[in-house]
Design brief:
The protein has 299 residues and is mainly α. Helix content is 75%, strand content 0%.
Length: 299
C-alpha cells in the first residue's frame, strides 16, 4: 500500500513538472521571438494538407450538397460515393500495383548496378559518360513523348503492360543513378579491399557489402519511383486503349466527361487511390527518413 502511494505521488510530481516545463517552453518561445517561425511552419503545413482535407470533405457529398456548398462539411454524409468509386477503382488498381511493383524492382536493380560501376569501377571515359546520363535529367518528359510513342509502337508494345513498365524503368534510372553513385562513392574503400583480399570479385563485393549497406538509400529511390509511376497519367493515356490494362489514374476519368464531373465519387476515388501510398509510407517511413538523414543524398 505504501509503495502504491509513493508511486502515485511520483506520478503527480511528474505531471506538475511536465506542466511547468510546457509553460516555461511557451514563455521562452514567446520571449525569444521564435513563435513566428513555428506559426509560419504550421501555416505551411496546413496549406500542404488543405487539398487532401478538401478532397476528403467532398468525397462525402452528394451532388446537390456539392452544388450548394462545395468545400465546407455538410450533413448528412453520403458514404455511397465510396461504393460507387470502389466499383471503378477495383477494376484498375491491380494493374497499377503490377506496373509499379515490377518497374520498381527492375529499376532499382539496374540503377544500383550502373551506379556501382560509375562509383567503384574505373574505366575510360567514366566521368564523361556519367555526365551524359545525368544530362537526361534536363530534358522535359514532354519533349520525348512523341519519339517514345513511335518507338514503342514500332516495337509492338502498345496495349501491353510492358509499354508502361519498360519506359518507367528506363526513365527512373537516371535520377536513381545520380543518387546511388554519390552514396556508393562515400563508402570507405577499406571494406572493399578486405573483401577483395578474401577473393571476392566485383559482383560479389557489390552483393555482400554494397547492397546491405545501401538499404536506406535504395528504399528512398524505390519509394520516389513508386510515387511517380502510381500517379502518372499522361503516358498511360497515350499508350493504352485496352480497358482491361488501364491503370488507376485513367480509371478515375470514368467520373468525368466533357460536360460535367461527378465530384463526390471522383474525390472518393482519389482517397481510395491514395490509401496504398499512405500504407506504403507508413511502413517504410523510418527507412525513408534514415536514407535522407544519414547523408545518403549528397549533391
Amino acid at each position: 500500500m505504501a509503495q502504491m502511494q509513493t508511486q502515485l505521488e511520483l506520478n503527480r510530481s511528474a505531471v506538475v513538472i511536465n506542466r511547468r516545463g510546457l509553460g516555461y517552453n511557451l514563455q521562452r518561445l514567446w520571449h525569444t521571438g521564435d513563435w513566428y517561425r513555428y506559426f509560419l511552419l504550421s501555416a505551411i503545413a496546413f496549406l500542404m494538407f488543405l487539398p487532401f482535407i478538401v478532397t476528403f470533405i467532398i468525397s462525402f457529398k452528394s451532388l446537390p450538397q456539392f452544388n450548394h456548398d462545395a468545400f465546407l462539411p455538410t450533413f448528412p454524409l453520403y458514404p455511397e460515393n465510396y461504393l460507387d468509386a470502389w466499383k471503378v477503382v477495383s477494376k484498375y488498381i491491380l494493374n497499377s500495383i503490377i506496373v509499379s511493383g515490377v518497374s520498381v524492382v527492375l529499376m532499382v536493380a539496374l540503377a544500383a548496378l550502373a551506379a556501382w560501376a560509375f562509383a567503384r569501377y574505373p574505366f575510360p571515359g567514366r566521368e564523361i559518360f556519367f555526365y551524359l546520363v545525368i544530362a537526361l535529367l534536363m530534358i522535359p518528359g514532354e519533349l520525348t513523348l512523341i519519339p517514345a510513342f513511335l518507338l514503342v509502337k514500332t516495337l509492338g508494345l502498345l496495349n501491353t503492360r510492358w509499354v508502361l513498365i519498360l519506359p518507367y524503368v528506363a526513365g527512373g534510372q537516371v535520377f536513381a543513378i545520380f543518387i546511388l553513385r554519390s552514396f556508393f562513392q562515400s563508402m570507405p574503400e577499406e571494406m572493399f579491399e578486405a573483401s577483395r583480399i578474401d577473393g571476392a570479385n566485383e559482383l560479389q563485393t557489390f552483393v555482400r557489402i554494397g547492397l546491405p549497406l545501401s538499404q536506406s538509400i535504395l528504399g528512398v529511390v524505390a519509394i520516389m519511383h513508386i510515387l511517380s509511376t502510381w500517379n502518372d497519367l499522361v503516358w498511360p493515356i497515350v499508350t493504352l486503349s485496352n480497358q482491361s490494362l488501364m491503370t488507376l489514374t485513367i480509371g478515375l476519368y470514368a467520373f468525368r466527361t466533357a460536360w460535367y464531373s461527378i465530384w463526390g465519387p471522383l474525390m472518393a476515388g482519389y482517397v481510395i487511390a491514395s490509401i496504398p501510398l499512405i500504407v506504403l509510407f507508413a511502413f517504410t517511413s523510418r527507412l525513408f527518413v534514415e536514407g535522407l538523414s544519414s547523408g545518403a543524398i549528397k549533391m
